[in-house]
Amino acid sequence: MTSPEAVAGQRLRGGRRLLATPEGVPLELELAERGERAGAFLIDIAFMAGAILALVFAVSSLAASTWDTSWLEALFLLAFFLLRMGYFFGFELAWQGRTPGKRLLGLRVVDRRGGTLTVGAVAARNMLREVEVFLPLTFLFLPVAGTVDGWIKIACLTWAGILTLMPIFNRDRLRVGDMVAGTWVVTARRSRLQQDLSVVRSASRKGRWTMAAAPADKERRYRFGAAQLDVYGVAELQVLEQVLRAPDSATSRETVREVSERIARKIAWDVHGNPIEPRPFLEDYYAALRAHLEHHMLFGDRRADKHVMEVRRSSPAPKGWQPPQSK
Amino acid sequence: MSDSLIRSYRFRAEREAQWQDLERLVSIAEKSGARALSPSDLLRLPVLYRAVISSLSVARSISLDASLLDYLESLATRAYFQVYGSRSSPRKAVGRFFSRDLPRAVRAARRHILASALVMGAGVALGWLLTASDMDWFYTFVDPWLAGGRDPSATTAYLRSTLHDAGTWKDELVAFASFLFTHNAGIGILCFALGAVFGIPVVYLLFVNGLTLGAVCALFDSRGLGVELLGWLAIHGTTELFAIILCGGAGFLLADGMVRPGRQTRLAALAARGRSAAVLVLGAVAMLLVAALLEGLGRQLVQDTGIRFVIGGAMLAFWLMVFAFGGRGERHDEP
Lengths: 327, 335
Known about the structure:
By secondary structure, chain A is mainly alpha-helical. Chain A has helices spanning 4-7, 34-64, 69-94, 100-105, 119-127, 129-140, 150-164, 176-181, 226-229, 234-245, 250-266, 278-298; strands at residues 16-19, 27-31, 107-111, 183-187. Chain B is mainly α.
């Protein structure tokens, strides 16, 4: 068993990352796209701007009435500060790493090491927005006239630009705040439990099998020998699964027919002696292939795809081992 | 094959009910919060989560059903967030922050905080010595806008009046306090954020602030107003300067993580230090709120130098007590 520390942060293909859980079983997470994150940020900024407008409106209408302006001014300053500094901080703390914008787009902040999101982490990643977003904005409006010459402004903007665009420059799409807080932003995936294809029967045959009465090998219409199952590996099995799970349509039926013909050719199926009906044929082949590959997997022999030619059936003799000599 | 059924299919048939049970609980918790679950469901949640995560682990090694693996992965992840997400009430969390997290972070970063205090102290000393030797230095160290006429050309009587005059702000004390807080807290947060980037701006900010402070002290001291000025500063300054020193310490902590990551990677070291540094800054923001109240209200209402010293000293003792003794009793690894 690999230790959680060794697992944490391990990169998988594309935007997938392994998160170490305290249970020792790593979870596969998918990093949020940079565009999604920008979108969530814009939504949140819009909410903030709306709240600030409402605040200004409320204050100005109260100022017209009998309220003491000193108190009003104090309240306004405090509320503005709370909104600017506390919006992201408060929501991410209360909603476990989500703000309204992130929630709408299904994003979430998580701890890279797999622990609980701490107050310190949430505070750190959001305080850094000051140098990532708000400081560059002030640079942008810096006066070019007089002593502050154009070069200084350009230097400031370049520096700020690098900070702001940090998520583009690293594979984990971390902004500076994520680096300091040790967090990732991931998409909260949600998938449904689908029926097991090895027991699904197409409607054209005996109807559906219930969970309690799955088909036995001998009841299957098409049966395959070990040589016919050794042709493919896990990658092909899962492509086959996708083909079979595709929603029913003219094109998907066409694909099923083409795939069944190609497989029949590849495994030298006797098409004339035992003609095939595309879908049931593929379903039976899928079930047989999965049983076959899973059986070998149990013995430590996982065949990634059809290009892995050598399928080890027994472990080779250890080096230096000599068979006993008969005298 | 002797088995009439695929092994992974039987595996699924045996556990499917459990998975769907967990899925129902997680959906409720996601929609309306974990508090919407009944007490018995709340107790079952972690048990079911552990069952599902073990199912996932088994499924990875025996099943080749991609959609099943995908389902278990997403279910386990969703449950993980519910089980390990913080669930304490906000009031409890705030209490725990001040009584435990903040004091621990301060104690852990005591060397960085000390360094920050030394840099500022060096600024004060240099500013004081130079200005005391030649008053012209005052104009170098103090922004004329900040000085507001309190410079070497002013009369002693005028300087004394600035320490005891409450008249100018009397009508707008609350607004003044509020302005002070938002302004200072903004600076503190910026100081931390800049520290995360380079660390050098922090040294600069601390030192320059120290210079200004030293120059002002030297000016008032030369007119025999040193003690009165200290009282004027102490009432809120013990809290405010402490908070600024904490922010500086937080900046140093981050810079340290980048420069000396130790056995960790630089990114991991930065992340580990960043969190405790952020805790320091949050604490400093709270202290600045107190300081602003003391400066905006207390200093205008209390005109006696002696009482100003007492309040300032009491505040300093209070913060030191909190940081020295807070959160010592409990175990460290509690979530």
